[in-house]
Amino acid sequence: MTAPIIRTVSGLRAMTDAWRRAGETIGAVPTMGALHDGHLSLVQAAKNACDRVIVTIFVNPRQFNSPEDYANYPRTEHDDAEKLERFAVDAIFVPDGDQMYPAGFATTVSVAGLTDVLCGAHRPGHFDGVATVVTKLLLQTACDKAFFGEKDWQQLQVVRRLVADLNLPCEIVGCPTIREMDGLAMSSRNLLLSDRARARAAALHEAMEEVAEGLRAGRTMAELRLKAEARLEAAGFTSVDYLDLRAHDDLSALERPERPARLLAAAWLAGVRLIDNIGV
Ligand code: AMP
């Protein structure tokens, strides 16, 4: 079944108003498109939990750090709609840019603290862009639950924080990272890797597993980080933005997993920035 593609907020509101009047629950899956099995796992989770499911596809200019990165981001709307057919979602919301940011748009949602570290430290303004668009999407879809991937762990914590702080009437559901056969976390950005780079990309996950093993054996991040970075360099990664152990919720830095912790990394391979994280 082909879901209707809705491009305006008023068109979407007409649908969600009718569903809410009928007492139906609404699940939202916000994405930037170029859908892969990671996204589709969120769609399945939403289908399992809600009466109605809206998938949103919007390549959000405000969360990119460079115009080239924004221009190069894969856009595959037709294929995306086809991939969603088997899930029989109720609407695909693909807002035009001026629906999201009309002339005079002047509001930014900014989450302090959590966004100062990790990707926030390396991508100025990125999480303001994410927080603003996610707030809008949660309000536009009038959803009861919204589904986000653990793949973007820091983003998930930022979204949980803003929903709590702004009393948005929506539950945030985190879903596990879906990986390729060789362990590489699925990502729309993987499409930008050459065959040669793709063959080396799983080294990121492998190096992280090795660090996690070392941590479980009682070693510290200081001891393990250098070896992991050398391994990544040997695999062809040109730089590592961070490889950090952090508390799983407030993202404070840890040397050892003395409380529930997440190992998070961002590294560059052939001009593509890959991120990943695992629980320790
Ligand atoms: P994006 O289109 O990259 O903005 O991602 C949209 C949503 O899909 C976000 O909540 C991501 O965390 C989630 N996502 C992306 N990749 C994966 C993956 N490999 N496994 C699970 N969720 C993912």
UniProtKB/TrEMBL annotation:
CDD domains: PanC. It is an enzyme of class 6 (ligase). Beta-alanine binds at Q63. It catalyses: (R)-pantoate + beta-alanine + ATP = (R)-pantothenate + AMP + diphosphate + H(+). GO terms for biological process: pantothenate biosynthetic process. GO terms for molecular function: ATP binding; pantoate-beta-alanine ligase activity. (R)-pantoate binds at Q63, Q155. Pathway: Cofactor biosynthesis; (R)-pantothenate biosynthesis; (R)-pantothenate from (R)-pantoate and beta-alanine: step 1/1. InterPro entries: Cyt_trans-like, Pantoate_ligase, Pantoate_ligase_C, Rossmann-like_a/b/a_fold. Pfam families: Pantoate_ligase. Signal peptide: none annotated. Its EC number is 6.3.2.1. The keyword Nucleotide-binding applies. GO terms for cellular component: cytosol. Homodimer. Catalyzes the condensation of pantoate with beta-alanine in an ATP-dependent reaction via a pantoyl-adenylate intermediate. The reaction proceeds by a bi uni uni bi ping pong mechanism. This is Pantothenate synthetase.
